[in-house]
Amino acid sequence: MAEFRYRSVEEHRRRVLGLVPLLPAEDLPLAEAHGRTLAADAVATLDLPPWDNSAMDGYAVRSADTRDATAPSPVRLAVVGELPAGTGADPALAPGQAAAIMTGAPLPGDADAVVPVEDTAGWDPSAPTAGTATPASVGLVSPARPGSHIRRRGEDVRAGQVVATAGQPLAPQRLAALAAAGISRVSTRRVPRVVVVATGSELVAPGQPVRRGQIPDSNSLMLAALVRASGGEVVHRTRVSDDPAELRAVLARTADSSDAVILTGGASVGAHDVARLVLAPESGGGVPLEAADGTGAAAEHDAGRGVPLEPAVRFERVSVQPGKPQGFGLLPDGRPVWSLPGNPVSAWVSYLVFVEAGLLGMQGRAATTPRWYPATTVEGWRSPPRREQYVPARVVSGPGEPLRVAQATERGSGSHLAGRLARATGLVRVPAHTDEVSPGDTVHYRPLEA
Ligand SMILES: Nc1nc2c(c(=O)[nH]1)N[C@H]1C(S)=C(S)[C@@H](COP(=O)(O)OP(=O)(O)OC[C@H]3O[C@@H](n4cnc5c(N)ncnc54)[C@H](O)[C@@H]3O)O[C@H]1N2
Ligand code: MOO
C-alpha cells in the first residue's frame, strides 16, 4: 500500500498565509467602511471629550459656594442661565450663582462641579414641571465635591492619538470610536472579490428535482455565506460539471473581476476529480496524492522553516479530519485558489481552517485567529490518530451555565452528513495527539452562529 506524507494543519495554513497577496488599500468615508479592515492606523483629530462637560442633568456650580450646605439649612444659588447639550455658551458665574446644565453641555469656565438635579432641595420627580422648567434659584443640601460629575476634555482620547490600528476590522463599536474622535475617512483594504465554484456532474440547484445519482449543491451556498462573513464579496457563484472545459472557462472568465477562487469537489483521487485535472494537470486524475518518497512537491519544501512557498497549485493530504484532501496555490494569473473536498462537512471545516485565514490575510488580518473556548463535552467519541479533528457541535448548556457541548450528529463527524449540520452551533477541535474523547473531557469550542 502506498505511504503518504500528511502535511500538518499548521504547515498548510502557513503555506496559505505565505502565498495570499495583500490587497491594495483604498480610502473610504467612515459610513461605507463597516466590515473593512484598517490599512493604516486611525488617528484622532479631536480631543474626546472635546471640552469639559457635564455628566448629569443638574446645576453647574462653584463648589466653594456650597461648602456649608446641609439638608436642614440648604445653600441657595441664583440660576443665571440654562445650558442644553449643543450650546456653545459659557456664562460667567459670580459667587452665589449657578447655571442649569444638561448632560453633555460644556461646563462654564467659572464652574468646578455639577450637582445632579436629584440632589437639590425640593426636587420632586412627580411634579408636572420636573426637569422641564428652570427655576430662578436652586437649593443645595450638601457640599459639592470639586470636579464631581464633570467629564474632562481629552480624558478618553487625545487629538493625535491612535484610536485603532492597521489590521483591525471596522466593527460597529470601532466605527463609533473613530467617528467620536473626529475621523471621517479611513484607509482600508479592498474587499476580496471571490469566485465560488461547486464542481461535480451530480449537482443540481437546490429545489430542482433530483434523479438517481443527483444531489442538490449545498456547498456553494454555504461557502458564499462564509466568504461574506469573512469580509469578502462573492462576485460569481456557479456549478460546473466534471468536464474540465467548463471549469477552465469559469476561471478564464473571472480572471479580471476577482481576487480569489474557491472550488469544492473533485479534490481527491477519483478519475473525474475535475479540480485536480484542471489545476494540477501534471498529477493526472486518479493517482495518489503526493507520495512520501521525497519526490514531487514534497521535495521542494523549505526544510529550514518547513514553509513551502512554491506558488503552483498543489493537492496534498493534510492531517485533519474531515478535510484531508486539500488543493491550494496560485493560478497563473496570481489569484489564490482553494480546492476543497466536496463532502459538505469537509468543505465547511476546510473553509474555517484554511480559507478564512487566507481571506483575512488578504485584508491585512493575517494575525487574526478565531477564538476557541474551553467546554465540557457530554459525549465521548473516537478521533483518528495523528489527525486534528473538527466536529460539528452544539451547545447543550443553558444560558449562564458553564459551557457544555455535544456532537451535532450522533454519528460523529461523518463528512457526508450535510442535513445534520443544521443542528451545529459551532465546531469542536480535538488535537492530533488525542485518539479518544471521553464524556466530561475539556475540548475547545468555536461558536459559529450568526
Ligand atoms: N480512494 C479514495 N477515495 C477518497 C479519498 C481517498 O483518500 N481515497 N478521500 C475521501 C475523502 S476523505 C473525501 S473528503 C472525499 C473528497 O472528495 P472530492 O473532493 O473529490 O469530492 P467529490 O468526490 O467531488 O465529492 C465528495 C462527496 O461530496 C458530494 N458533493 C460534492 N460537491 C458537493 C456540493 N457542491 N454540494 C453538496 N455535496 C457535494 C459528492 O456528491 C460526494 O458525495 O473523497 C473521499 N474519497
Ligand atoms: O477527509 Mo474527508 O474530508 O474526511 O471526509
Automatic annotation (TrEMBL):
<feature type="domain" description="MoaB/Mog">
    <location>
        <begin position="195"/>
        <end position="361"/>
    </location>
</feature>
<comment type="similarity">
    <text>Belongs to the MoeA family.</text>
</comment>
<dbReference type="InterPro" id="IPR036425">
    <property type="entry name" value="MoaB/Mog-like_dom_sf"/>
</dbReference>
<comment type="function">
    <text>Catalyzes the insertion of molybdate into adenylated molybdopterin with the concomitant release of AMP.</text>
</comment>
<dbReference type="InterPro" id="IPR005111">
    <property type="entry name" value="MoeA_C_domain_IV"/>
</dbReference>
<dbReference type="Pfam" id="PF03454">
    <property type="entry name" value="MoeA_C"/>
</dbReference>
<dbReference type="InterPro" id="IPR036135">
    <property type="entry name" value="MoeA_linker/N_sf"/>
</dbReference>
<comment type="pathway">
    <text>Cofactor biosynthesis; molybdopterin biosynthesis.</text>
</comment>
<keyword id="KW-0501">Molybdenum cofactor biosynthesis</keyword>
<dbReference type="Pfam" id="PF00994">
    <property type="entry name" value="MoCF_biosynth"/>
</dbReference>
<keyword id="KW-0460">Magnesium</keyword>
<protein>
    <recommendedName>
        <fullName>Molybdopterin molybdenumtransferase</fullName>
        <ecNumber>2.10.1.1</ecNumber>
    </recommendedName>
</protein>
<keyword id="KW-0479">Metal-binding</keyword>
<dbReference type="InterPro" id="IPR001453">
    <property type="entry name" value="MoaB/Mog_dom"/>
</dbReference>
<keyword id="KW-0808">Transferase</keyword>
<dbReference type="InterPro" id="IPR005110">
    <property type="entry name" value="MoeA_linker/N"/>
</dbReference>
<dbReference type="InterPro" id="IPR038987">
    <property type="entry name" value="MoeA-like"/>
</dbReference>
<dbReference type="Pfam" id="PF03453">
    <property type="entry name" value="MoeA_N"/>
</dbReference>
<dbReference type="InterPro" id="IPR036688">
    <property type="entry name" value="MoeA_C_domain_IV_sf"/>
</dbReference>
<keyword id="KW-0500">Molybdenum</keyword>
